[in-house]
Amino acid sequence: MTDSHALDSDTIVAIATPSGRGGICVIRLSGPAAKSIGEHITHRPLIPRTPVFTRFIDQNNIAIDEGIALYFVGPASFTGEDVIELHGHGGVVISDMLLEICLNAGARLARPGEFSERAFLNNKMDLTQAEGLADLIDAPTRRAARQASATLRGAFSAAVTDIAAQLIQLRVYIEAAIDFPEEEIDFLAEGKVAESLSALQNALRRLLVSARQGALMNRGAQIVITGVPNVGKSSLLNCLAKDNIAIVTNIPGTTRDVIRQTITVQGIAIEFSDTAGIRDARDEIEKEGIHRAHNELHRADIIIEVIDDTATNTTKVLTPSETPSICVHNKIDLSGRPAGTFDSELTQGNAVGVSATTGEGIAALEQLIVECLGLTDTGITSAFSARERHVVALQQTTELLEQAITQFNATGEGELLAEDLRVIHERLGSITGTFGADDLLGEIFASFCIGK
Length: 452
Ligand SMILES: Nc1nc2c(ncn2[C@@H]2O[C@H](COP(=O)(O)OP(=O)(O)OP(=O)(O)O)[C@@H](O)[C@H]2O)c(=O)[nH]1
Ligand SMILES: [Mg+2]
Known about the structure:
The protein is an alpha/beta fold. The chain folds into three domains: about 5-120, 2-Layer Sandwich (Gyrase A, domain 2), CATH 3.30.1360.120; about 155-215 and about 385-445, Up-down Bundle (Four Helix Bundle (Hemerythrin (Met), subunit A)); about 230-370, Rossmann fold (3-Layer(aba) Sandwich), CATH 3.40.50.300. Helix content is about 45%, strand content about 20%. It has 15 helices and 13 strands. It has helices at about 35-40, 90-105, 115-120, 125-140, 140-150, 155-180, 180-190, 190-220, 235-240, 285-295, 330-335, 360-370, 390-410, 415-430, 435-445; strands at about 10-15, 20-30, 50-55, 65-70, 85-90, 110, 220-225, 260-265, 270-275, 300-310, 325-330, 340-345, 350-355. The chain has a seven-stranded mixed β-sheet with strand order 8-9-7-10-11-13-12. Strands 3-4-5-2-1-6 form a six-stranded mixed β-sheet, covered by helices on one side. α6 runs antiparallel to α14 (about 415-430). It is flat, with a radius of gyration of 29 Å. Bound molecules: guanosine-5'-triphosphate (GTP) and magnesium ion. Guanosine-5'-triphosphate binds near residues 229, 249, 276, 333 and 357. The site of magnesium ion (MG) has 6 residues, from α9.
């Protein structure tokens, strides 16, 4: 934690409601002087957790507005400090005037996120909860909002804390073994360590899968539509969006620029990119379009390759890669193929027959997309939102644990394992921001009061 993130004794203030016209505006103050500033502005004593209807009075003793003042006594407040909320009338000028009288009375303008930061520093919430709060506010769909709300309420933290508790138990056990070298070998070879390590590994892998899904829900998925010209890529985008977004003509090479559109599929925000058809370009513009189409593929969580199902000679542009792909056989209204998924020899993977003109098969395609993302309602293991930061930390934790296990199996060295687990614990703790060496010491002394 850097100094800029240490708690200071300033009382901070900000307008908590969005800027613009509205019924009410809320000004929030937090810090040791919040109550005195609130009472200075209202000219009356404020009572904890009791709404007070009052005037708001400026430094020239002029009442500029009237409304409600609320007083939350720390630590039982959002930030853990004394908090005052002033509910005035909503309007750009009046809310600025209210803010100004708070500043004149000694408060300082809050930095972005500073109320949440104070809540974190005062242990009102951990890092994932603070992030969940921000993600809830930015949630692109209802489903993403529900998951962010679960993170805010501590669902993700609970899963991390659970694993951390297992880790602490194991560390305590190993540290004890090291402290009693005459028994160390037996202690470590007993099988309990190997068992715990493997349980830990499984728990971490499961959490990593959930976090990946949570992060995908949160940031929204990226799907790129590719294929040779004229197969109906732009028609498919328009059909999925139920809107006439991209130009469709029967001239091969119609699309040049990448066209991106966010579409909600089964409650998941997905950004689809329609791209230029891949072929030997006829001119400079098309060449650039195809170049952009290739670049776009790198961003994809899933690539959709569209094939003209009426074509006798099917040209595929995709070569197998790590990115999951779906092969869409389009124009089934002409080819006569039944709508929906089928086993394809051509793609040896996910294939679905659709018509971008009639809309047949589109529901099956949407279902396949959601399944490929691992986000089906039934198969879903993640009920919380997460961020790439968490995914990276969990990924590193999992890898570190794998290395530690390999090393321990090869050497049987307790001290090396203890050190590896310390590093792993620290990495895991970075997710919630709650890791501290003192925690571990406390645990060790509490459970091992050995008078030996
Ligand atoms: N009958 C039928 N025609 C379709 C279907 N999908 C697309 N088309 C037609 O196929 C032609 C090409 O469609 P586009 O959507 O422009 O194809 P594209 O893959 O985006 O083509 P480029 O941008 O040139 O690469 C148009 O004439 C469409 O009307 C379909 O499902 N059924
Ligand atoms: Mg097109």
